[in-house]
Write a structure and sequence with these properties.
The complex is a heterodimer of chains A (110) and B (125). Chain A has 110 residues and is mainly beta. Helix content of chain A is 0%, strand content 45%. In chain A, 38% of the residues are buried. Chain B is globular and about 45 Å long. The chains are: A mainly beta (110), B mainly beta (125).
Chain lengths: 110, 125
């Protein structure tokens, strides 16, 4: 049972937009910055978003992040088949003194 | 090239020990918080431990399930991070990733901007 809650799967057609939610509490998302990661099978995760909505160099602006209260959202526009991957949210939990991740969301581009 | 390379994984019996290493290149770990994150087969990411840098007294943090069994350490002179794992349990079976926390590189707090390729630890009799 993950501290942060994500939907197990989402799907959308190529070219469409999809959002992935990440729900937490005041001790984590509510008071801390959220990051998002993309992971392809058999490879290491890759940072997509940090500080709720900032993109590292090289990450296309098709990827966006937002936060409201104790929830965060990753948005992906102009979906491509190459976006099929697992996506994870993460943040610090001040009550646990731990970094916490969501359970992950598998994106399928139909 | 900026990279992290883990080593030391393998097959170990329950109750056994293993020491993982993470060699950094292209940057100095002395400026950074460094982390271990694991992923059990078919499961999600689970943060394991943190090593803060000298300015924060090399303090450490651990997930509850490994406290007292795992020890994270670093050797800034060798630009390397370590994870000593004792009293291993079957549920410790996972790919273990070394990661760099990004605040010192201009990125966010508690965001991991550089990851190694991972090393597999299998605990089985």
């Amino acid at each position: 049972q993950s501290v942060l809650t994500q939907p197990p799967s989402v799907s959308a057609a190529p070219g469409q937009k999809v959002t992935i939610s990440c729900s937490g509490s005041r001790s984590n998302i509510g008071d801390e910055y959220v990051s998002w990661y993309q992971q392809f099978p058999g490879t290491a995760p890759k940072l997509l978003i940090y500080d709720n909505n900032k993109r590292p160099s090289g990450i296309p602006d098709r990827f966006s992040g937002s936060k409201s209260g104790t929830s965060a959202t990753l948005g992906i526009t102009g979906l491509q088949t190459g976006d099929e991957a697992d996506y994870y949210c993460g943040t610090w939990d001040a009550s646990l003194s731990d970094v916490v991740f969501g359970g992950g969301t598998k994106l399928t581009v139909l | 090239e900026v990279q992290l390379v883990e080593s030391g994984g393998g097959l170990v019996q329950p109750g056994g020990s293993l020491r993982l290493s993470c060699a950094a290149s292209g940057f100095s770990i002395s400026d950074h918080y460094m982390e271990w994150v694991r992923q059990a087969p078919g499961k999600g990411l689970e943060w394991v431990a943190r090593s803060r840098h000298k300015a924060v007294y090399y303090s450490t943090e651990y997930i509850a399930s490994v406290k007292g069994r795992f020890t994270i350490s670093r050797d800034d002179s060798k630009n390397s991070l370590y994870l000593q794992m004792n009293s291993l349990k079957i549920e410790d079976t996972a790919v273990y990733y070394c990661a760099r926390e990004s605040r010192a590189a201009g990125g966010g707090k508690n965001a991991f901007d550089l990851w190694g390729q991972g090393t597999m630890v299998t605990v089985s009799s």
